[in-house]
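Example 278.
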Amino acid sequence: MPQIIDGKAISTAIKDELKKEVAENNIKATLAVIQVGNDPASTVYVGNKKKACEYIGIGSRSYELPEETTEAELLKLIDDLNRDDGINGILVQLPVPDHIDEHKIIERISPQKDVDGFSPESVGNLCIGREGFVSCTPAGIIELLKRSGISIEGRECVVIGRSNIVGKPMALLLLANNGTVTVCHSRTVNLKEICKRADILIAAVGRPRMINRDYVKEGAVVIDVGIHRMDNGKLCGDVDYDDVSDIVSAITPVPGGVGPMTIAMLMYNCVKAARQVK
Ligand code: NAD
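Predicted structure in complex with nicotinamide-adenine-dinucleotide:
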């Protein structure tokens, strides 16, 4: 039987640690959450983020803007929130509507309030090993590994996916933790062979159950970042869990693996932002 990495339990432990820190140190923090339009998935994510703030004892202020909001209006709101001393973190729920340039929006958020860790300054800091906000999903994966007693140092790590929010920061974090890292993507040749080398395989492909046992070395640790809703209403990941579970040493389930960690690390970043101000 593989070790099932319990993201729900680990994320709750992190939130409880933060809750204690906030209460004991009387930390005052408020997260501004901006949603443009009413994409149902975004509404659920935003709701979960607000609930998590409440759980750890920090404030949240929501801005639910209509789909027609212009780029200039959104930039103006960000400028106002950047100047507002009562706000420690600013998050714009992605994706934004097509008429708004996502990069411009992310760049406008003050680096001191960039709790998603998506700004060029945050990514640059991660790249050169300086302190800063780290993208929540990959940061959560490092916590999952560490808190499950899985060491990264010297191990062969393969990341499938090179997106700005998962694949690339994931690779940088594994490197910072002394892993030997390979990044694969849609143009990679010999994907299966490369994946089969991995001691730690991170699947962030966005394709339901693509990663089966043909991609996995016996005894590997498999981290599944994907989330997909199937026709029967159930969730699955990028990994074919049933196919690989008898050959891996450890694996994250979907749901209950990586998913809950993203919000826990967002809360970590919000508390970090408030600590910097104190
Ligand atoms: P994305 O679509 O931006 O990136 C997917 C990456 O996979 C790309 O870099 C692409 O090159 C690569 N890819 C696509 N097809 C491939 C193939 N056949 N072979 C090799 N590489 C291929 O997706 P993303 O935003 O990085 O998210 C990846 C998955 O993780 C999605 O399922 C998404 O829903 C999920 N996700 C989960 C969380 C969470 O909190 N658990 C957070 C973010 C994303």
